[in-house]
Specification:
This protein is α/β, with parallel strands linked by helices. It has a single domain (4-110, 130-184), classed as HAD superfamily/HAD-like (Rossmann fold). The protein has six helices and six strands. It has helices at residues 34-42, 63-78, 105-114, 128-137, 149-152, 167-184, and strands spanning 4-7, 46-52, 86-90, 122-125, 140-144, 162-164. A six-stranded parallel beta sheet has the order 3-2-1-4-5-6, with helices on both faces. The chain is globular.
Length: 185
Amino acid sequence: MNKAVFLDRDGVLIRDDKSYYVYKLEEFELLPKVPQALKLLSGEYKLIVVTNQGGVAKGVYSLEQYQAFSNMMEKELGNYGIKLDAIYVCPHPENVCECRKPKPGMMLQAANEHDIDFNQSWLIGDKISDVMAGQAAGCKTILVKTGAGKKDESALKATPDYEANDLLQAAETILAERNLKLSVL
Protein backbone atom coordinates (compact mmCIF):
# COMPACT_ATOMS: atom_id res chain seq x y z
CA MET A 1 0.00 0.00 0.00
CA ASN A 2 1.05 3.60 -0.59
CA LYS A 3 1.50 6.48 1.81
CA ALA A 4 0.04 9.85 0.90
CA VAL A 5 0.03 13.45 2.00
CA PHE A 6 -3.38 14.95 1.30
CA LEU A 7 -3.12 18.68 0.75
CA ASP A 8 -5.77 21.34 0.84
CA ARG A 9 -5.23 23.83 -1.99
CA ASP A 10 -6.27 27.34 -0.94
CA GLY A 11 -4.22 28.62 1.96
CA VAL A 12 -1.88 25.62 1.97
CA LEU A 13 -0.41 25.54 -1.53
CA ILE A 14 -1.59 28.88 -2.89
CA ARG A 15 -2.24 32.28 -1.38
CA ASP A 16 -5.92 32.88 -0.71
CA ASP A 17 -6.02 36.33 0.83
CA LYS A 18 -6.78 38.33 -2.33
CA SER A 19 -10.46 37.50 -2.73
CA TYR A 20 -13.13 35.35 -1.11
CA TYR A 21 -12.87 32.73 -3.86
CA VAL A 22 -9.51 31.88 -5.39
CA TYR A 23 -9.97 31.23 -9.10
CA LYS A 24 -8.62 34.22 -11.07
CA LEU A 25 -5.46 33.34 -12.99
CA GLU A 26 -3.98 36.79 -12.38
CA GLU A 27 -4.22 36.17 -8.62
CA PHE A 28 -2.41 32.81 -8.73
CA GLU A 29 0.53 32.71 -6.32
CA LEU A 30 2.21 29.73 -4.69
CA LEU A 31 2.84 30.30 -1.02
CA PRO A 32 6.49 30.65 0.01
CA LYS A 33 8.36 27.39 0.66
CA VAL A 34 5.72 25.23 -1.09
CA PRO A 35 8.14 23.82 -3.72
CA GLN A 36 10.74 22.95 -1.06
CA ALA A 37 8.11 21.26 1.11
CA LEU A 38 6.66 19.19 -1.72
CA LYS A 39 10.13 18.11 -2.85
CA LEU A 40 10.85 16.83 0.66
CA LEU A 41 7.67 14.73 0.63
CA SER A 42 7.46 13.60 -2.98
CA GLY A 43 9.98 10.78 -2.83
CA GLU A 44 8.13 8.87 -0.15
CA TYR A 45 4.53 10.05 -0.28
CA LYS A 46 1.92 10.43 -2.97
CA LEU A 47 0.93 14.10 -3.19
CA ILE A 48 -2.83 14.40 -3.48
CA VAL A 49 -4.80 17.64 -3.42
CA VAL A 50 -8.32 17.56 -1.93
CA THR A 51 -10.13 20.86 -2.35
CA ASN A 52 -13.61 22.21 -1.70
CA GLN A 53 -14.65 24.64 -4.45
CA GLY A 54 -18.19 25.65 -3.55
CA GLY A 55 -17.88 28.79 -5.68
CA VAL A 56 -18.57 26.60 -8.72
CA ALA A 57 -22.02 25.55 -7.48
CA LYS A 58 -22.75 29.11 -6.37
CA GLY A 59 -22.01 30.38 -9.88
CA VAL A 60 -19.11 32.61 -8.79
CA TYR A 61 -16.81 30.84 -11.27
CA SER A 62 -17.12 27.95 -13.68
CA LEU A 63 -15.68 24.45 -13.53
CA GLU A 64 -13.59 25.49 -16.55
CA GLN A 65 -12.15 28.45 -14.61
CA TYR A 66 -11.38 26.13 -11.71
CA GLN A 67 -9.65 23.71 -14.10
CA ALA A 68 -7.60 26.49 -15.73
CA PHE A 69 -6.45 27.57 -12.26
CA SER A 70 -5.53 23.99 -11.34
CA ASN A 71 -3.65 23.60 -14.62
CA MET A 72 -1.68 26.75 -13.82
CA MET A 73 -0.82 25.36 -10.38
CA GLU A 74 0.34 22.05 -11.84
CA LYS A 75 2.43 23.84 -14.47
CA GLU A 76 4.05 26.08 -11.87
CA LEU A 77 4.85 23.12 -9.63
CA GLY A 78 6.21 21.30 -12.67
CA ASN A 79 8.67 24.16 -13.15
CA TYR A 80 10.16 23.02 -9.82
CA GLY A 81 10.16 19.36 -10.84
CA ILE A 82 7.10 18.52 -8.75
CA LYS A 83 4.24 16.38 -10.03
CA LEU A 84 1.04 15.98 -8.08
CA ASP A 85 -0.31 12.43 -8.10
CA ALA A 86 -3.94 13.57 -8.18
CA ILE A 87 -6.32 16.44 -7.56
CA TYR A 88 -9.81 15.82 -6.21
CA VAL A 89 -12.38 18.59 -6.13
CA CYS A 90 -15.80 18.97 -4.57
CA PRO A 91 -17.63 21.73 -6.46
CA HIS A 92 -20.76 21.51 -4.31
CA PRO A 93 -21.98 23.85 -1.57
CA GLU A 94 -21.98 22.75 2.07
CA ASN A 95 -23.95 19.72 3.28
CA VAL A 96 -24.85 18.46 -0.19
CA CYS A 97 -22.52 15.52 -0.76
CA GLU A 98 -20.19 13.05 0.92
CA CYS A 99 -17.07 14.40 -0.75
CA ARG A 100 -17.09 17.93 0.67
CA LYS A 101 -14.76 18.33 3.63
CA PRO A 102 -15.21 17.85 6.59
CA LYS A 103 -16.51 14.57 5.15
CA PRO A 104 -13.75 12.27 3.86
CA GLY A 105 -15.29 11.33 0.50
CA MET A 106 -12.50 12.75 -1.70
CA MET A 107 -9.90 11.00 0.44
CA LEU A 108 -11.79 7.70 0.34
CA GLN A 109 -11.96 7.91 -3.45
CA ALA A 110 -8.24 8.66 -3.62
CA ALA A 111 -7.42 5.75 -1.32
CA ASN A 112 -9.41 3.40 -3.54
CA GLU A 113 -7.82 4.66 -6.76
CA HIS A 114 -4.24 4.91 -5.45
CA ASP A 115 -4.10 2.04 -2.93
CA ILE A 116 -3.45 4.33 0.04
CA ASP A 117 -2.96 3.25 3.64
CA PHE A 118 -4.53 5.96 5.81
CA ASN A 119 -2.59 4.77 8.87
CA GLN A 120 0.63 5.89 7.17
CA SER A 121 -0.83 9.02 5.58
CA TRP A 122 -1.30 12.66 6.51
CA LEU A 123 -3.63 15.52 5.77
CA ILE A 124 -2.34 19.10 5.77
CA GLY A 125 -4.96 21.84 5.78
CA ASP A 126 -5.58 25.36 6.94
CA LYS A 127 -9.11 24.85 8.23
CA ILE A 128 -10.72 22.74 10.89
CA SER A 129 -12.89 21.14 8.19
CA ASP A 130 -9.66 19.80 6.64
CA VAL A 131 -8.55 18.38 9.99
CA MET A 132 -11.96 16.77 10.51
CA ALA A 133 -11.81 15.12 7.07
CA GLY A 134 -8.34 13.76 7.78
CA GLN A 135 -9.42 12.41 11.14
CA ALA A 136 -12.55 10.82 9.65
CA ALA A 137 -10.35 9.02 7.12
CA GLY A 138 -7.87 7.89 9.78
CA CYS A 139 -4.89 10.09 8.84
CA LYS A 140 -2.65 12.15 11.05
CA THR A 141 -3.37 15.83 10.60
CA ILE A 142 -1.48 19.10 10.53
CA LEU A 143 -3.13 22.51 10.69
CA VAL A 144 -1.00 25.14 8.96
CA LYS A 145 -1.28 28.79 9.93
CA THR A 146 -1.20 30.04 6.39
CA GLY A 147 -4.59 30.85 4.92
CA ALA A 148 -7.49 30.41 7.35
CA GLY A 149 -5.43 28.43 9.90
CA LYS A 150 -4.31 31.55 11.71
CA LYS A 151 -7.98 32.53 12.24
CA ASP A 152 -9.52 29.08 12.70
CA GLU A 153 -7.62 28.15 15.86
CA SER A 154 -10.05 29.79 18.25
CA ALA A 155 -12.97 27.72 16.95
CA LEU A 156 -11.37 24.29 17.28
CA LYS A 157 -14.02 21.60 16.84
CA ALA A 158 -11.24 19.11 16.27
CA THR A 159 -7.67 19.07 17.47
CA PRO A 160 -5.01 18.44 14.83
CA ASP A 161 -2.12 16.13 15.64
CA TYR A 162 0.27 18.99 14.92
CA GLU A 163 0.26 22.66 14.01
CA ALA A 164 2.79 24.31 11.71
CA ASN A 165 3.53 27.83 10.56
CA ASP A 166 3.64 26.78 6.89
CA LEU A 167 3.85 23.80 4.56
CA LEU A 168 7.62 23.46 4.91
CA GLN A 169 7.37 23.15 8.69
CA ALA A 170 4.54 20.62 8.20
CA ALA A 171 6.71 18.56 5.81
CA GLU A 172 9.59 18.65 8.28
CA THR A 173 7.21 17.46 11.03
CA ILE A 174 6.12 14.49 8.90
CA LEU A 175 9.70 13.49 8.12
CA ALA A 176 10.80 13.94 11.74
CA GLU A 177 8.01 11.65 12.94
CA ARG A 178 8.92 9.09 10.28
CA ASN A 179 12.58 9.20 11.38
CA LEU A 180 11.53 8.79 15.00
CA LYS A 181 9.55 5.68 14.10
CA LEU A 182 12.51 4.27 12.16
CA SER A 183 14.89 4.85 15.05
CA VAL A 184 12.54 2.94 17.39
CA LEU A 185 12.59 -0.08 15.09
